[in-house]
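TEACHING EXERCISE
Course module: macromolecular assemblies
Task: Read the component lines below, then compare them to the predicted structure of the full complex.
Student: A.B.
Group: 4
Components provided:
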Amino acid sequence: MRIYNTMTRKKEELVPVTPGEVKIYACGPTVYNFFHIGNARPFIVFDTLRRYLEYRGYKVSFVQNFTDIDDKMINRANEEGITVKELADRYIEEYYKDADALGIERATVNPRATENVQEIIELITTLIEKGHAYATEDGDVYYDTHSFAGYGKLSGQPLDDLEAGARIEVGEKKRSPSDFALWKAAKPGEPFWDSPWGEGRPGWHIECSAMSMKYLGKTFDIHAGGMDLIFPHHENEIAQSEGATGQTFAKYWMHNGYINVDNKKMSKSEGNFFMVREISKEYDLEAVRLFMLSAQYRNPVNFSRELIEQAKSSLERLKNAKDRIEDAAKNGVDGEVDPEFAELLKKHSQAFIDAMDDDLNTADALSVLFELIRETNIRFADPRPKKEAEAALKLLNELTGVLGILGKKDSIPQEILEKAEERQSARKAKDWKRADALRDEIAAAGYAVEDTPNGPKVKKA
RNA sequence: GGCGCCAUAGCCAAGCGGUAAGGCAGAGGACUGCAAAUCCUUCAUCCCCGGUCCGAUUCCGGGUGGCGCCUCCA
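Instructor-supplied answer key:
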C-alpha cells in the first residue's frame, strides 16, 4: 500500500517497522463537548484505514487518545459546575455513542491524558536532562525549540520563519516565542498533579508523545490527524519524542483535509460547525460515513444537507443490491458458480484493493463497489445458483465491511409486516384500492413495500 | 512575508501523458395492476493563456478564482 506522507510530501510504500504489523496513533478529541462532523472525518477515515489494513492481513494496533485535561476542559467544567473528571467521563461516553453510530470500531486502546501523567512527567524529565527543556521559577516547563535541529521539518517551515509569524504573549517567560509548554504550574481551582517542578498539569502536546510511545514504542508506523495539527501539534510531538529518544518517531504522517461549510473551514472557533449528534437526529449516520468516504481523504469537502441526501440515496442503492443478493442466496437454484462470474468477482475485488492501496482512495473504491452491484443486480434478477449469490455476498460483505457501511440491518416492526401481508392478500384478490391504501399506511409509518419476484419486501424508507 | 492545497457535467467525485470511472438529480424506454426496486439509452473535452511532446484534463511557466497553516482547533 502506498500512503501520502506529509513528512516527505510524497506517496510512499508502507513498510511497517515490524513486518505484518501496523501501529497507528491518531489524535483523538478533547472531551469537553459532543464532537462535530469536522472531528468525525479523521475518526472515519483512519478507522477505514485500520479496517483496510486488517482486511489485508495486518495486525493493527490503533491508539487514539482522549485529551481530558486542558484549558477548554477546565473552563467548561467550571461553567457547568462539575469536576473536570466528571466532564470527561460524560463526553467520553457521548463520544462512543456517536462513534458507534458512525461505524467507528473501538480503538485498541483509548488512553486518557490524566491516566498517563506519570509517563508524561518521566518524558519531561528526560527532555530536561537532555537539554531540550527548561523549567521556569514559577513551575512551568517549556520545550526549547532551538535545541532541536529538526524543528520545522514536518511543516516545512524553518524556525526563523515560524517565529516571524508567532504571536508574542504578554508576560512571556519563554526563551523564544516558538517554545511551548510541557508542564503548566497549577492555578487556583485547577486540577493538578505533583511533579518535580511543583504542582501542575501537562501541556497539550506532550500527552500525545507520552501515550503514543507508551503503547506503540519509540518508533511506530503511522501518526494520523487533521491537517490543522501539522503545526504546531505534530511538529511539537516530533521535537518531544525524537528529542527524548534520538530515534525516528513516526515513519508516516497522514493528515486528512477539512470539512468546509460554504467553502470555509468548519471549526469550533468559527462557530459554523454541525454536531454529529444534531445530524443524527435527522439522518442515519451511515449516510454521513458514506459522504465522508465519497472523497479522497486529503481533499477538502464541503458539508451540506444536500450532500448527505445524495449520500443517503447512494447508500439506498447499495442496500437494495445487498437485499437482492441475500434473496438470491435464499431462493437460489442448485448448481455451481459460473467460472466467468467467479472471474468477475475476482476482478472487482482486485480493483477495490488497487484503489485502496493508492493512498486510501475510497472514492475510487466506492466506484468499484457500484460497478460490482450493477453486475449482481443484472445477474440476480433471474434465478441463479445459490452458490453464486453466496460468493457475491461474501465479497460484498468484505468490501462494505472495509468501508464500514451496510453493517446493520433495519428491523421492521411486526405491525408493519402484518400490513404488508394484508396488502399481499388484497393484491391476490386484485383489490387494488385496498392494497394501495395499505401501502400508503406503511409509507406513512416510514417504511416502503416493494413487490419482487420473491414476494413483497418491506424496508425502511 | 514564509509554507501549502484546490479548480473535471445541474450537484458530488475519481482519473493525472494516449483522446473523460462512479454516485445523486434529470430525460426517454423496458419491467410492474399501479408503484418501488432494477436494467437499457441519454447527459462534460476537464478555469484561462503560453510551452514541452507524435499526443496534455494529466508535465512546465504565467494568469484568474477559491481555501488552509504559520494562534486553541480534526
